[in-house]
Design a protein that fits this description.
The protein is α/β, with parallel strands linked by helices. Helix content is about 30%, strand content about 25%. The structure holds fe (ii) ion (FE2). The site of fe (ii) ion (FE2) has 8 residues, from helix 4. InterPro entries: Calcineurin-like_PHP (IPR004843), Metallo-depent_PP-like (IPR029052), Metallophosphoesterase_sf (IPR051158).
C-alpha cells in the first residue's frame, strides 16, 4: 500500500515536472523556420539573398538568444512586421535596445502592428527607431540595390491607424488599404516587390496586387496548434484561422506568415514554439 502511494506521488510529480518543462520549452525555445523562394524574376544578383523576419515580439526577453539566432543566419536584411511591443507591456527602452542590437547584424526595416497603435506610445517608439537608423516603412517604400539591380520593399501601417474619415471617404477599411497598397507599388516602380505588413488575414488584398512576396504575422500561429486543424484561434481571424504559419500562395503572390515570438493576452503557446523566419531568395537556373 505504502509503495503504491509512493509510486503514485512519484508519477504525479514526474507528470507535473514534464508539463512545466514542456510549457517552458514551448514558450521560450526559438524555432528557426527556413523557406526559400525560387523565381526567375528575382534579379540574379539577389541569388542566395537572406532575409530574416522578426514578428510579434511583444517585448519578450529571450536573454540574448534571439540576437544570437538572428546573427547565426548572417542575414542581408532584417524585417520587423509589427507588435514589437505589447499594449500592456510597453517597455520602449527594452524594445529599442533589442532592435539596436539587430542593426549591428544587418539593416532593419519595420512596420507597425496593432499593439504599437493601441499602446498610445507609437509616436515615441517611431521616433526612437528613427534615431537608431531603422527604416520605417509604414505606408512607405524603399528599394534594395545590388550591383545595379533592385528589389522593391513596400510597407503597410497597421489598419488600426486608419481614421473614420478615411474609411467613410473610401467606403471600407479594406478599400483604403487596397488603394494605399496600389499607390505604394506604383510609386516604388520596381519589377519584383516585397511587402511588409502585420496582418496575415489581408492575403486577398495582397494577392489582388502585383506583390511577389508578403511578410506578415499577427496570428501567433493560432496560439495552440493541433494535428490536422493547425491553429486554434487567432486575433482578427477567430477560431480555426486560415493563415497562421508558413508559406501561402494565391494568384502569384506568396505570403509568409510568422507564428511570432512573444505572447499577448493569452500567455501560453502549445505545439507552437516562438518562430524566427528565414527566407533565402533563389533565381532559377543559378546553382
Ligand atoms: Fe498583432
Amino acid at each position: 500500500m505504502k509503495i503504491s502511494k509512493k509510486l503514485s506521488l512519484l508519477l504525479i510529480l514526474t507528470l507535473l515536472f514534464g508539463f512545466a518543462f514542456y510549457g517552458y520549452y514551448q514558450n521560450n525555445s526559438i524555432e528557426v523556420s527556413y523557406y526559400s523562394i525560387n523565381d526567375e524574376r528575382i534579379p540574379e544578383t539577389f541569388h542566395d539573398y537572406t532575409i530574416v523576419q522578426v514578428s510579434d515580439l511583444h517585448t519578450k526577453d529571450f536573454k540574448g538568444d534571439l540576437h544570437d539566432k538572428i546573427s547565426d543566419q548572417d542575414p542581408d536584411i532584417i524585417l520587423i512586421t509589427g507588435d514589437l511591443i505589447d499594449r500592456n507591456r510597453t517597455d520602449l527602452d527594452f524594445a529599442v535596445q533589442a532592435v539596436e542590437e539587430m542593426i549591428d547584424i544587418a539593416p532593419v526595416y519595420y512596420v507597425s502592428g496593432n499593439h504599437e497603435i493601441a499602446s498610445g506610445e507609437y509616436e515615441d517608439l517611431s521616433q526612437e527607431l528613427d534615431s537608431i537608423g531603422v527604416r520605417n516603412l509604414d505606408n512607405d517604400f524603399d528599394s534594395l540595390e545590388k550591383e545595379g539591380e533592385t528589389i522593391g520593399l513596400v510597407g503597410l501601417e497597421d489598419p488600426l491607424l486608419l481614421t473614420q474619415d478615411e474609411i467613410e471617404e473610401t467606403g471600407t477599411a479594406e478599400k483604403v488599404i487596397e488603394e494605399t497598397l496600389a499607390t505604394l507599388i506604383e510609386e516604388s516602380g520596381t519589377d519584383y516587390t516585397i511587402l511588409l505588413s502585420h496582418r496575415a488575414e489581408l492575403m486577398d488584398i495582397y494577392a489582388s496586387t502585383s506583390i511577389d512576396i508578403a511578410f506578415t504575422g499577427h496570428a501567433h500561429g493560432g496560439q495552440i496548434r493541433l494535428p490536422f486543424i493547425e491553429g486554434l484561434y487567432s486575433p482578427s481571424q477567430g477560431f480555426f484561422p486560415k493563415y497562421t504559419s508558413g508559406l501561402y500562395e494565391e494568384n502569384g503572390t506568396q505570403m509568409i506568415v510568422s507564428r511570432g515570438l512573444g505572447n499577448s493576452i493569452f500567455p501560453v503557446r502549445i505545439n507552437n514554439r516562438p518562430d524566427l523566419v528565414v527566407l533565402t531568395l533563389k533565381t532559377n537556373g543559378i546553382e
